[in-house]
Amino acid sequence: MKFTYFRRNSSNQLIVSTRTAEQTFERMKSNRPYGSCEVCPNVEFRKDRNGIPMPRHLNGVVVLTFDNLEQAERREAVKEAAMTLPTTLASFCGANGKSVIVLIMYSVGSKDFELADKLAETAYDDAVILYSRVTGADVCREEPSTRMQFTMPHNSHPLYNADAIPLDRNANGEETMRIIKLLNSRYLFRFNTLLGYTEFRSKRSVAQVWNPVDDRMINSMTIEARLYGLDAWDKDIRRYVQSDMVKAFNPLLDFLDRAEKAWDGHTDHIGQLARTVPCTASQWERWFRKWLLYMVAQWLGKTKQYGNSVVPLLISAQGNNKSTFCRRLLPDCLMWGYNDNLLISEKKATLLAMSQFLLINLDEFNQIPAKIQEGFLKNVIQLARVKIKRPYGKHVEDFPRTASFIATTNEHSVLADPSGNRRFIGIELTGAIDVSQPIDYEGLYGQAVTLIKQGEQYWFDDAEVQEIMLHNNQFQILSPAEQWFNECFEVATDESDGEWLTCAAIYNRLKRYAGSELKGNLNHFGRVLNNMKGLSQKRSNIGKKYLVRTK
Fold first, then answer.
1. Rounded to two decimals, what is the model's pTM?
2. Least confident of 196-205, 287-296, 324-333
3. Cα 196 from Cα 212, distance rounded (Å)
């Protein structure tokens, strides 16, 4: 295959020459400009005896130009996306430095030059639909013809596929393109990368609502296509909407990008929201700010080793807008990411939810059994990624975690695991949360994104963790063993009025006093003593001892 070069010499004479496709792409790699040169990849021209260029051979190459690609990363992404199709001969950056040019093979059929322009026009229209979907970029529309040209670039690092195959121009291929054209004339499609399915929006509807393309909608689209006289089946519709011809879309990152641009740079939306929660904890505003930043950092994929492992726990009687506050943390466009009915004891469902939702409200936290708090919940909260097998999946997959946790309860004493209460921020309300004012969500999350990018710390350091643990002691559930200990002993602060006893000695005294009502074995009781606030410990040759005073 040979391309035709058109350029003018110093005397303004038209110079026509040909080079193979391989020579052309090698020349593009050169750092030296080739002068002002236009390249026609579709037709090989030769000058006749009068010096007029005449077409000699059709190659079957259509030219697409994607312009206004300002960022180099974006241009490279378009180049690589175009090369995923077997019909792509080459993709490279245009001479203006802001475009990508894609050369696509198509079947020329007969060599009749009188029909060639019509054939090129049809191939061009098909290619525009196909490649705009695959690349996610807009084609700079041109008048299609066999003589479409591009300016010879240099230093453009072209991608080349010598084994490119022509666009399918048989009856089945044409019917498929007609089906795609019809669908795109009536609907907008996007593949939601967070939810893992294709969504659609009708161009005929005023409502800007995106809905999943489920089986019911596929059947409706199939019937619609057949009523238009197309030989469409549900499998044809499904193949298209589930292919990479549908542009990928991340609704979360799209919202955060818009929010970042919207923040005015000085209004403290996070602090305003925190102050709607009346409480006695002076640290609440600072803790809430850090938790919210951690949640957004997790959405942005910045939490590599540990996920957002702290959970605000709102504590009050009913009717104080705790659940409403949690629900209002997400804007309407992200409400699909809110979950307040997760059964935390179902481990597989919990792991799946952590990769699919944005915020999980552990409503009525006091109903979570102590064993779940001490085991599964404490461990799962700190995960940065989750490994699960999706429904109907064939193997375990690894997903980034997106969900953070918040919780509500009507009970004061709810934390069952002394070693795990650092995972929670217990906040006892002194009144109803003010939910009367609208939330500026773009300002709120724009502030969070900006602060994270400016380097503000969004994780809790060791000092803050100790502060939280000390604060949470008031919400600790006393186990039966601790309650029986308090019946018989006190924590001693001085050896003069206390005695050093082993775990077994303390346990045996309690057993004599409480009998069968003292539950748990000696190992469990040892863990209770190790986590008891203020209880002094020391090691001896017969094991660890504790400084206690008998009541």
1. 0.63
2. 196-205
3. 10
